[in-house]
Amino acid sequence: MISYKAADIQQWERFYRANFINSLTGFKSISLIGTANTSGNTNLGLFSSIVHMGSDPALVGFINRPLKAAPHTIDNIKATGVYTINHVHESFLEPAHQASAKYPESVSEFDETGLTPEYIDHFTAPFVKESAIKYALTMQEIIPITLNDTFLVIGKIDFVQLEAGVLRPDGFLDIDKAGSLCSNGADAYYNTAFIARYKYAKPGILPEKI
């Protein structure tokens, strides 16, 4: 085993250090967040920081980078209060990755990547039509993280749209059947494969598969 202290890591070249830390946390889900400004101009951003925050109420959070680096998604959410989260699949991985480029505010990532904006049930934020798992959210809270000038954005799920065959009878989602991808670091993407599900763990009882 090789050990690295914080002082060692801090001395590394900037991009080497970023690659190391970004991939250290392991595989993460990736999704495209769709927004629109008050004039209806659309925006699409790729995020790997999305996290479940509670089921009742149904809350999902994500980390938005500092405003200088990534202002458009959070500005649109502040202005309209709504946004969408759309799983990424291999069939449109390259366009999804391209959506992470720093386009000007006046340029829509939908137009640049060829992905299709979709509007469902009069929800004013755009979905990604090509995505098999997507959901609409209403912003509940934006929490500044002063340590690095990022923001925790928390939204409440309004409704969900799924491809047929993904939902199990007990409510579990087989996202591998939908072909949802995950990532590591800032530029590597992976398929997923189901291994097993286990019953709720209790002390003194051996794990049992479902």
UniProtKB/TrEMBL annotation:
GO terms for molecular function: FMN binding; oxidoreductase activity, acting on the CH-NH group of donors, NAD or NADP as acceptor. Keywords: Flavoprotein, FMN. The keyword Glycosyltransferase does not apply. Residues 31-166 form the Flavin reductase like domain. Its cofactor is FMN. Pfam families: Flavin_Reduct. Belongs to the flavoredoxin family. PANTHER family: FLAVIN REDUCTASE LIKE DOMAIN-CONTAINING PROTEIN, FLAVOPROTEIN OXYGENASE. This is Flavin reductase. It comes from Panacibacter microcysteis.
